[in-house]
Amino acid sequence: MKIEQIHHVAYRCKDAKETVEWYGKMLNMDFVLAIAEDHVPSTHEPDPYMHLFLDAGNGNVLAFFELPTKPEMGRDPNTPKWVQHIAFKVKDRDELIAFKNHLEANGVEVLGVTDHSIFHSIYFFDPNGHRVELACPDPEEEAMLARLDSVKWDMLEEWSRTKRAPQHADWLHAKELSKG
Q: Which segments constitute the VOC domain (predicted)?
């Protein structure tokens, strides 16, 4: 048995229409499907919802639920805002910069470009408060991934024992962190 791919990733949204329009305008995602019911199919509980699906490219689907009868959505106060996010791949750095300029021109506050060595990213929040990342591969990505692959198990084992950052791949963010 093996998973083929992610079917969809689902998040909650504050306003379904606003979410569809924002992702269409800001990230050029097409609205592909809407499902609305008065009962949850999996649990059968009465709870009206709007479930919408957006084309995130290459067979990837981003979905949202608007839940009007539930308390206002929040976030885990013990998890930093930078942890939970969804990242989308863009073709190259030129495309990344074009998205950054487009988002900023439309009033979206953008963090980055952040240099992760293997890829480069920008970060921003959607109108629901979800953190979104756009990432493009570095031209040397393949060689760096091979280097990381060779130490992943050693790093995991050391982390598991010590709960301290192993230094096997400290080169990864050295350039970015030296900017500080």
A: 5-137
